[in-house]
Specification:
Radius of gyration of chain A: 18 Å
Strand order of the largest sheet of chain A: 6-9-8-7
Number of helices of chain A: 3
Number of strands of chain A: 9
Order of helices and strands of chain B: HHHHHHHHHH
Shape of chain B: globular
Oligomer: heterodimer
Radius of gyration of chain B: 18 Å
Largest sheet of chain B: none
Number of helices of chain B: 10
CATH architecture of chain B: Up-down Bundle
Helix content of chain A: 25-40%
Strand content of chain A: 25-35%
Distance between the termini of chain B: 24 Å
Largest sheet of chain A: 4 strands, mixed
Order of helices and strands of chain A: HEEEEHEHEEEE
CATH superfamily of the largest domain in chain A: Fe-S cluster assembly (FSCA)
Structural class of chain A: alpha/beta
Chain lengths: 159, 248
């Protein structure tokens, strides 16, 4: 590996790390990378960073905030000369993109379970299954469920 | 950015305008819907429709927010291509629910027509919207299902359906240049070609509705604005007009 390509790789690592440090505005402490919102990070030899993001759903009002946070984080990396942040038309986000680490943080800190298309979810507190009470909850990507075991109200994050 | 033909733009704007005004109409129920879950549902569903409108306007105008705003909010009334269904100001909740069911049943078919579109970004938008729409249809259908089982509610829904159906038929009216847009690969078939399938679904959902006696859709409504359009657009521009240079 030549000297310049290894330094490009080092810069790419630094940008990836900076982007991974951006939290979701709704869930402080949960990285947008762990939520599956970051599809690609490209850094060229002259320090131009291009970051492609995937929206959870098309009308999400947090998109501008997230893009601005990503731009700020990447711009702060030494050696980065320009940053382009864009929302990709594809792939389509689904809750399958959420990592185990984010699932645990959502469950432990926010009593939020991750659902999928068939709406099955598990109570973050007691592990029993939940029953949907309202398809639409406090935001477009969250439904309201109730646990069939401990009766706790559970927000279920889904596509 | 790809240069789109006039026909393609006309086709996309009609779709975007419908989604935009439909989204706005849903948001009017925030805080005043019959029960809390409906407040949340209509806020979320309206948000989706506005998101779909933004995707479609962006395909025409590019990602520049001010260009999207200009298309969405600042055209002359005569340049909008919305259907009268989404412009309509309805007196009651039952009309809103009926429109919700009818519109989303049609919207599903409309996205399917562009799911293989040659317009960059449109097929991906159709896939994304298609996922979101399944929640809308499930919501409208569950409510209609519950309310049709209650005699007073069923009567009110049927009466609302009689009033809303003629407007809903206008959804399928072609914009000028639709045939050209189809030949260019924007969509696979005229929206009108899906009307019989939609009517069959309406008839199956609302038992006893005689769709055979529906009036023929008025022509050219997409080129004329209904009386409800001007007050709606005035409300939509209210905040924007306070400071058109503001960055949100």
């Amino acid at each position: 590996m030549t000297r310049s390509s290894s330094s490009t790789a080092g810069l790419a690592d630094a940008v990836n790390k900076a982007v991974a440090g951006v939290d979701d505005p709704e869930y402080p402490g949960v990285s947008i990378v762990d939520l599956g919102l970051v599809e690609r990070v490209d850094v060229t030899g002259n320090g131009r960073a291009s970051i492609g993001l995937v929206p959870t759903f098309s009308g999400c009002p947090a998109l501008d905030v997230i893009a601005a946070d990503v731009r700020d984080a990447a711009s702060a990396v030494t050696g980065v000369t320009s940053v382009d942040v864009h929302w990709l038309a594809s792939p389509i986000w689904s809750s399958d993109r959420i990592t185990a680490r984010a699932r645990k943080a959502l469950a432990d800190r926010f009593t939020v379970a991750v659902g999928n298309d068939d709406e099955a979810a598990t109570c973050p507190r007691c592990g029993e299954s939940t029953v949907e009470q309202s398809t639409f909850g406090p935001s477009r990507c969250r439904a309201i469920h109730r646990c069939s075991g401990c009766a706790e109200v559970v927000e279920v994050l889904r596509a | 950015m790809t240069v789109l033909s006039e026909s393609a733009i006309e086709y996309l704007l009609a779709f975007a305008d419908d989604e935009h005004l439909m989204g706005q109409r849903y948001t009017e129920w925030i805080g005043v819907a019959p029960f809390l879950e409906e407040d949340l549902a209509l806020a979320s569903i309206g948000q989706d429709e506005l998101g779909h409108a933004a995707m479609l306007y962006a395909i025409v105008a590019g990602d520049d927010d001010s260009a999207i705003d200009r298309l969405a909010l600042l055209r002359d009334a005569d340049d909008y291509r919305s259907s009268w269904l989404v412009e309509a100001e309805f007196p009651g909740w039952e009309h809103t629910l009926v429109r919700h069911w009818l519109y989303d049943a049609a919207e599903e078919l409309r996205w399917e027509l562009v799911s293989g579109s040659t317009v960059p970004g449109l097929a991906a938008a159709a896939e994304r919207a298609g996922r979101e729409e399944s929640y809308h249809r499930r919501h409208a259908d569950a409510l209609v299902d519950a309310l049709l089982g209650v005699p007073e509610s069923a009567e009110r829904l049927q009466n609302a359906l009689t009033e809303v159906l003629p407007l809903a038929l206008g959804l399928f009216e072609a914009v000028d240049g639709e045939a050209m847009a189809i030949s260019e690969g924007v969509a696979t078939a005229p929206f009108e070609s899906r009307r019989s399938l939609w009517q069959a679904r309406v008839a199956a959902r609302f038992n006893g509705t005689d769709l055979g006696r529906l009036p023929a859709p008025d022509q050219d409504r997409r080129r004329r604005r209904s009386p409800d359009f001007a007050p709606l657009m005035a409300r939509m521009r209210e905040v924007y007009n306070l400071d058109p240079s503001a960055v949100w």
